[in-house]
Amino acid sequence: MSPKTGRPTDDPKKFSTRIRMTDEDIRLLEICAKKTGMTKSDIIRQGIREVYAKIENENCSTVVS
User: Fold this and answer.
1) Confidence band (pLDDT; 50, 70, 90) for 60?
2) Burial of 38 (0-12, 13-18, 19+ CB in 10 A)
């Protein structure tokens, strides 16, 4: 038997986390997933990257100022 399971990927997701969400958070996440065709996980990952980019941009602007 092969030791690998699942689909091959160049970006394996080795970690898992749990979050607590309100009914409204879930509703908004499901709407976003349906409208964009993205998975809920992809939407959450994108949100993390957007917040990180905002933080980095704020850090760069305070250093330049």
Assistant:
1) confident
2) middle
> How confident is the model over 9-36, as pLDDT tens digits?
898 889 999 999 999 999 999 999 999 9
Residues 28, 36: Cα–Cα separation, whole Å: 12
Distances from the Cα of 61 to the Cαs of 14, 51, 53, 56, in angstroms? 34, 15, 12, 9
3-state secondary structure the chain: CCCCCCCCCCCCCCCCCCCCCCHHHHHHHHHHHHHHCCCHHHHHHHHHHHHHHHHHHHHHHHHHC
